[in-house]
Amino acid sequence: MVKDYGDEARIYYHNVEMTLDILYPLTYACFFIALLSLLLKNYKSFRFRKWNIFPIATLIFDFLENAFIIRLLNLYPAEGIITAHFVEIFKILKWGSLLILLGILLFAIYSAIKRNISSSN
Length: 121
Description:
Elements: H1 7-18, H2 20-40, H3 46-49, H4 55-75, H5 81-120
């Protein structure tokens, strides 16, 4: 795919990876950590409250994916087959951890609603 990009597109993609693709993961990780902390703060078991840091896993996989994309761009015109495989591995891990994160979020929302209904009765 990198082969199909022109020189300007590769430079642009590299710059996006080094700026926006650093800020965006940091933003969503902080948002999810804050949201989960808020939803799980009154949970009785610390075992569940500590899941508020799970978004860090998604953040790390996103950063690793971006790092290997940058490496792939820097390797051009050489073909970085192994690097491309790592991009795909970290992409799958990122989306898998995001799916788990959404499950944790749904559980936290359900628990918070259930606690509020129980406490109002």
